[in-house]
Amino acid sequence: MSDSEPADLSSKYVLQTAGFDARFPNTNQTRHCFQNYTDYFKCVAAKGEDFAPCKQFKRAYNSLCPNEWISKWDEQRENGTFPASLEP
């Protein structure tokens, strides 16, 4: 740590990963990642972006999914080519 960085930097940020989900008991979390991504957009479509429970899905997919996947899926949603229904 350099002298210019605050000593309490770690106390400013709380890093969390998605909690255990009994639907996905194995170590491979690919399906868990995809499910949270689709659940988030279904939730937003049904309840709106400000609905607090939707944010949990977003936190989970941001924690579980590689950024490249998220970027690709966002692009597919914008182009109307996403491979799953996001209707609530």
UniProtKB/TrEMBL annotation:
GO CC entries: mitochondrion; respiratory chain complex IV
Annotated InterPro entries: COX6B-like (IPR048280), CX6/COA6-like_sf (IPR036549), Cyt_c_oxidase_su6B (IPR003213)
Pathways per UniProt: Energy metabolism; oxidative phosphorylation
Annotated GO biological process: mitochondrial electron transport, cytochrome c to oxygen
Gene3D superfamilies listed in its UniProt record: Cytochrome c oxidase, subunit VIb (1.10.10.140)
Cross-referenced PANTHER family: CYTOCHROME C OXIDASE SUBUNIT 12, MITOCHONDRIAL, CYTOCHROME C OXIDASE SUBUNIT 6B
Family the entry assigns: Belongs to the cytochrome c oxidase subunit 6B family.
Protein name: Cytochrome c oxidase subunit
